[in-house]
Amino acid sequence: MKWTQVFDPFNNIALSALIAVVPILFIFWALIIKKMKGYKASLIATAVAILIAIFIYGMPINLALLSTANGALYGLFPICWIIITAVFLFNITVESGQFEIIKHFMASITSDRRLQALLIAFSFGSFLEGTAGFGAPVAITAAMLVGLGFNPLYAAGICLIANTAPVAFGSIGIPITVASQVTSIPEMAISQMVGRTLPILSVMLPFYLVVLMAGVKGAKEVLPAIFLTGISFAFLQWMASNYLGPALPDVIAGIGSIVVLIIFLKFWKPKNIWRFANESAPTMIAKNKYTTGQIIRAWSPFILLTVMVIAWGMPPIKELFNAVGMAQFEFPGLHHVIFDKNGKGIPHIYRFNYLSAAGTALLLSALISVPLIGLKFGDAIRIFKATLKQLKFPIITIASVLAFAYIVNDSGISITMAEALANTGFLFPFFAPVLGWLGVFITGSDTSANALFGKLQAATATSIGVDPVVTVAANVSGGVVGKMISPQSIAVAAAAGHLVGRESELFRFTVRHSFIMLLLICFIVLAQAYLFSWIIPEYQMLSPKASSSTTDFSKGYIYLLVLGSVLIAFAMAVILIARNKALNKNTPTETATK
pTM value? Predict the structure, then answer.
């Protein structure tokens, strides 16, 4: 059976667009008015989209169901695979007690609340966003700040706003991976375009956060620290996104800005230690409670994660893993069965790259970490099961949202909305970030927003003569400022900050800042589209066809040998650190006598 997409079922683009937008409006209604749980809203929205595709667009029932299944399968792997393994790695760090050392290390550097917010909410939160994402960074950093004595509302609100900078590259770059998947624009091109937009916001955000806390006068007192944090983060974010890809900008920028600020604070201190108005005077934090070796051991899972993800992103290793560890197949009954308006069959090839997937690198990092941080593999199995249970509803939500995205794209519903939006003409690039902002507000995830609107952005840009990577990247960038007001994010931050029942206060705290940052990104994208088009990276659209395997894999094996040597050396160092600690505990203190 072959079927050609219909883009204007009523022969009136405005009326067709009104029908096409019904599933989107349902999500708004379900989440905002009915306050329905995310997984329920996404499942029902998918059902609504299927009904519209079948009864309005004339899509055959079997194609509609197959398209939905294809999307859900992609949601489970590789997307959920990354989320599960990232949260698993974080959970074993907490379970082992090593995260307490990390918390103490972060908090003991300074007792100034402004600098603590920069270190924990901004830099450390960015690092966590790069590894775990999907709500974990806000929950962790808000809980840490409350534990340090922050006002709960400020702690939660500041962490939500600080989480703006890293969202686009969260969870090892999965939002950009999804945007690439639904648009066929290479990941690297989208990463480069986003990396030429967000650093402008990143360099301003530390100052913005401190002004919110302490006012302009309070921000001026720590201006050198703010400047170094913002500049170092923005530079590393730009460099990693433009030259390494979407997997590591948050990890590298987060770690880099932490290191820069820590080194700077060894030589510079603010004249006044700033605290909240109703706080007591700061108490001294115990120095040298943990040795350098203990701190390295506590950070070892995240150090391993960084090394592994860098290695997994190297072309020789990726090509080798794809050659020996990837199964791909044409999706039965769907591949080249649906035709676009140009009469071209739409490919549906599913790739199960179980070795080269970033989630596999995360899983291996976690498994190597298990004995290094003092756990047994039996504990790891128990924690992994608990992680699956913890993520059961996010897994359902993501699978259903990707199913929704695929049925909307394959049926032509998204193209209908694109055709209507193209009527904004010259100004569409200005409104492109608004779509991403709305998508993240609805779903709570930049990944899901890109799945929903990525194809629409690309199609609309093409129809008005703008390079589609500009508007697809705008969807990613606009989405990041919607995260702070997403109902799901608000709920996570409220729970972590002991603000359950006060969600409306938290929403009011963040909403105006979301609009301000969105407006800034809208103007940046408009300028990129027309005034600074030289900033757009050169790229070629991805081909769905499998490439012929004639690559020399010897370099990949050499890289793996080097990686293995580095991992063994690092593991032995951490084991020696742990043994020395145990020996010191068991050795009685000798009393010197004269």
Answer: 0.77
In a domain, 43, yes or no: yes
pLDDT in tens, 42-91: 899 899 999 999 999 999 999 999 999 998 998 888 778 877 887 888 88
CA-to-CA dists, residue 70 to 167, 298, 356, 427, angstroms: 26, 40, 20, 34
Exposure pattern of 463-499 as b/e (b: 16+ CB <10 Å)? bbebbbbbbbbbbbbbbbbbbbbbbbbbbbbbbbbeb
Q: What CA–CA distance (Å, rounded) separates 157 from 159?
A: 5
Domain that holds residue 355: 1-98+302-411+556-586
| Residues 498-539: tens digit of each pLDDT | 676 566 677 778 888 888 999 999 999 999 999 988 888 888
Asked, for residue 424, whether it belongs to a domain, the answer is no
C-alpha–C-alpha distance, residues 110 and 124, integer Å: 14
Q: Quote the CA–CA distance of 555 and 426 in Å, as a whole number.
A: 48
Asked if 468 contacts 183 with a C-beta cutoff of 8 angstroms, the reply is yes
- Are 164 and 501 contacting, i.e. CB atoms less than 8 angstroms apart? no
Do 245 and 347 fall into the same domain?
no
Q: Provide the b/e sequence for 513-550 (b: ≥16 CB within 10 Å).
A: bbeebbebbbebbbebbeeeeeebbebeeeeeeeeeee
Q: Which of 433, 575, 460, 450 is nearest to 515 (CA)?
A: 433
Q: In whole angstroms, give the CA distance from residue 117 to residue 210.
A: 8
131 and 265 housed in the same domain: yes
Which residues of the chain have a pLDDT value below 50? 284, 286, 546-549, 589-594
Quick one: which of 470, 447, 460 has its CA closest to 395?
447
- Domain co-membership, 139 together with 268: yes
Burial 348-361 (b: 16+ CB within 10 A, else e): bebbebebbbbbbb
Tally of domains within the chain: 2
